[in-house]
Amino acid sequence: MGRSLILIFMLVAGLATAAYGQTDAPKGSEKPAVPPTQKSEEVAREGTMTIKQMDAIIKLLDKKAKSLRVGVWQFTIEKNTVIIVTDEKANRMRIMVPIRPAEGLTLEELQRISQANFDTALDSRYAIAQKLLWSVYIHPLSELYPRQFIKGIGQSVNLALSYGKTYNSGLLTYGGGDSRAILRRQLIDKLLKQGIPI
Question: What is the distance between the alpha carbons of residues 64 and 53, in angstroms, rounded to a whole number?
Answer without folding.
Answer: 17
